[in-house]
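Notes on consecutive records. When two proteins share a document, each keeps its own sequence and its own token line. Never mix them. Below: protein one.
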Amino acid sequence: MNWLGDNPWAIWAAIAAALALAELATLDFTLLMIAAGALAATGVAVLFPGLVWLQIVLGIITAAAMLGAIRPLLVKKLHHHGELKTGSAHEIGRSGVVVKEIHPDAVGSIRLGGELWTARPYDETATIPAGTRVEVMAIDGATAVVYPIGDLPPTHPELG
């Protein structure tokens, strides 16, 4: 225990490492910025091992500066593309071509980005012949809900 008292930098370095590892679970850069403050306190502890108050103050100032100045820049840089669409939500708004006629009584199929999807009409009374270009209005399970591109309705369901 005497060694830790003589080497406060080791405590700060362990805190910085623990915070940096914990950041991997959150991925929001908050813990990483606080880890930078602990790392700054490590440097002060190496130079001035007896000035614990200076280590704490400089660590807090560094963490606050990182949280206030660097974190917003990182978040903006990494998330500047808006909402990330994954899975089937990524297909909404894309266009495809009807491969098998789509009509209200039975599902047809479309080719969408090289994949074959089952499809049904957005307008429940419409029949869409093969070869027609369509836009995906929604995804219902594994079925694309589509509308002919030349006849798009005035509002999409996600805007509605």
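Protein two starts on the next line and is unrelated to protein one.
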Amino acid sequence: MKSRVVGFVFLIGSAYYVLAEAISATFFKASFVNTYLFHTISELGIPNGNSPLFWLMNSAFILIGLTLIFCNYYRFKDYIARNKILFYIFTLITSMGVIIVGLIHGGNPLTSGYHTVGAIMAILGGNLLLILISRSMAEFKIYQMRTLILGVFGLIAFGIMFFNVTSIYMPIFERLSVYTLIIWCFLTGAYLAKI
């Protein structure tokens, strides 16, 4: 029963994130495609005239952070056979990072540093968490392999983004490095909801 509850929470959290970003992008002061290609996710959460639904994007950040910490600590921890302390630490780092991103916006010189730290905690921490999970479960099967691939892909995308922050294509790599965690939440939700 716990597995199904956590599975549905994972599914709801990841689906809400995807829908919230899409809706926020629809109302952003740029075309839908250009928003995804040339504007960062963080821009969707800045409370200004460019993003009238900033609150929706920020709620998605906060919800995915709460989803991750609840699901991992409540049930998913039971599937971790090794490195449990690291699993708890990286779950907390990632969750707190995403929540910070939702609460402290970019674009403000007084707070943008905190926002950036939160983003690094969320993105770098999240992809390292996936790699850790893939190597810490009792058996290394298809699920673990998919988790590992997502984590490695996310780290590569993060690295490209980090060293190309002035590129007009930086938002693409930002999204690629963020979506790995969202995809993992969805896949894990689907997996657990069946158990």
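For the record: The chain has a mean pLDDT of 96.
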